[in-house]
Amino acid sequence: MSEMISIQNVSKWYGEFQVLTDCTTSVAKGEVVVVCGPSGSGKSTLIKCVNALEPFQKGEIIVNGTSVGNPKTNLPKLRSQVGMVFQHFELFPHLTITENLAIAQIKVLGRGRDEAEAKGLALLERVGLKAHAHKHPGQLSGGQQQRVAIARALAMDPICMLFDEPTSALDPEMINEVLDVMTELAQEGMTMMCVTHEMGFARRVADRVIFMDRGHIVEDCHKDAFFGSPRSERAQQFLSKILQH
Amino acid sequence: MNYNWDWNIFFKSTGIGDEIYLDWFISGLGWTIALALAAWAIALVIGGLLGVMRTLPNKWLSGLATAYVELFRNVPLLVQLFIWYFVVPDYLPEQTQVWFKQELNPMVSAYISVTLCLGLFTAARVCEQVRTGIQALPKGQANAAMAVGFTLPQVYRHVLLPQAFRVVIPPLTSEFLNVFKNSSVASLIGLMELLAQAKQTAEFSANIFEAFTLATLIYFTLNMSIMKFMGWVEKRVRIPGLMVEGGK
Ligand SMILES: Nc1ncnc2c1ncn2[C@@H]1O[C@H](COP(=O)(O)OP(=O)(O)OP(=O)(O)O)[C@@H](O)[C@H]1O
Ligand SMILES: [Mg+2]
């Protein structure tokens, strides 16, 4: 398998504070990788480095052959190819759902409005929200907003998708509707890097699990190995805590 | 107190040509409105730009905007006015100087000075409102906008500014009202705007109370109309499902 995302010896500091220490891993095309770990361990930071929402000081990240840290890289173009879904949805509240789905297609990819809206509508139907096309994000529930956010990312025909705790701001009854969409995506072969604590999802859908602690990648292995016998004590503690809930 | 109220004074002749006092007020109101609108246009454009600059990652641009704000906010308005009217013209090129000081109608040169002064003064205040409005947005919005591939100008144009604009309507409304109130400093350099006309009426007719009552009423009506209008604008652009309370 060829590599979609390659992270090599990445370190990052906020001033004196080191958030990431020598992180190395990769995501192959079509692979689904779940990133987990305690709060503050640097999961969000790592995933944001992948599409250059955060700069890093050391190491290299290569996405589909393009070096993210290279100052000559056209970052907006790179980001337009990498879909990202956030914990708090971050739909554009002043635009309708239709406009949310169309605007980047039009302004970034140069698609015509009709084409963009048709594509948006098709994706909306796919996540089961076609009837809400005319509404504004504030008029939808959290789970609905997150499904729209996934559709917004898909509208750009991304080569891979990044998820940063997509379900942790949701009420429990809404978590599954979002996980279902993600599961479907994974089954279609989308390359995905997901920060999530949904271990059921990881067990069912992931190929690999990465465990982070205090800025280090502590475990990086096949999901069966991770759930079967995590080697590090920290990962064992983390798992036993999270599986209790 | 033995004061002879006479509300008919406004329809009496001023003794100059065939003008009545009301004509003075109308002309004064005209200058006040012309002054406030032009100054407000300057303040919005420059203040908006500076406000955006203060939120940019570039240290030089944001530093420049900060310096502007510090300068224009910390020098009293009257001092600024005297600088624009008495000092700045002396540093204009020879020909422009002659034109400004001698050929131009003195009312017009005063108008230009006050407009610039008030516009640039208010720009500093508008800048701060715009900056606060942008910074009040959730940080994830800028990230989400960049994540779909927008360039920095597009992030501002399509995501940050349309939202910030709605947030800053109430504070900008009160800045706009301040422009009207502050426009009365123009009377100090001889521009016959509303306050100056009221003063002149009081002096000519000795009906001091009527003159200032009318001026007060006019300022009050202006302010109320602007507030009503801006309240209407705010309602029109309100985002469905959001800002139900009409943010303060
Ligand atoms: N802008 C910043 N400036 C300074 N420190 C930061 C900044 N952003 C994050 N940090 C710190 O970096 C560390 C890693 O943060 P990060 O958000 O990546 O953690 P996380 O693993 O995603 O945690 P969570 O599960 O709470 O989302 C934390 O200790 C955090 O306090
Ligand atoms: Mg996080």
Task: Produce the secondary structure layout.
The complex is a heterodimer of chains A (245) and B (248).
Chain A: E1 3-14, E2 17-28, E3 32-36, H1 43-50, E4 58-63, E5 66-67, H2 75-81, E6 82-85, H3 97-107, H4 113-126, H5 142-154, E7 160-164, H6 172-187, E8 192-195, H7 199-205, E9 208-213, E10 216-222, H8 223-228, H9 233-244
Parallel strand pairs in A: 3-8, 3-9, 6-7, 7-8
Antiparallel strand pairs in A: 1-2, 1-4, 4-5, 9-10
Helix pairs in contact in A: 3-4, 3-5, 4-5, 5-6
Chain B: H1 21-55, H2 59-74, H3 77-87, H4 94-103, H5 106-135, H6 139-147, H7 152-182, H8 194-205, H9 208-237
Helix pairs in contact in B: 1-2, 1-5, 1-7, 1-8, 2-5, 3-5, 5-7, 6-7, 7-9, 8-9
The structure holds adenosine-5'-triphosphate and magnesium ion.
Task: Write up this protein.
The complex is a heterodimer of chains A (245) and B (248). Chain A has 245 residues and is an alpha/beta fold. Chain A contains nine helices and ten strands. Chain A has a six-stranded mixed beta sheet, sandwiched between helices. Chain A has a four-stranded antiparallel beta sheet with strand order 2-1-4-5, covered by helices on one side. In chain A, helix 3 (97-107) runs parallel beside helix 5 (142-154) and helix 5 runs parallel beside helix 6. The longest helix of chain A is centred in the C-terminal third of the chain and has 16 residues, at 172-187. The model of chain A has no long low-confidence stretch (mean pLDDT 95). Chain B has a single domain, classed as MetI-like (MetI-like fold). Helices cover 74% and strands 0% of the residues of chain B. In chain B, helix 2 (59-74) packs across helix 5 and helix 8 (194-205) runs antiparallel to helix 9 (208-237). The radius of gyration of chain B is 22 Å and the shape is globular. The A-B interface holds A 48, 51, 53, 76-77, 79-84, 86, 88, 90-94, 103-104, 107-109, 135-140, 152-153, 156 and B 138, 140-141, 143-151, 154, 158-159, 162-163, 166, 239-242. The site of magnesium ion has 4 residues of chain A, from helix 1. Chain B: This is Amino acid ABC transporter permease. Chain B: Belongs to the binding-protein-dependent transport system permease family. HisMQ subfamily. Chain B: Residues 29-230 form the ABC transmembrane type-1 domain.
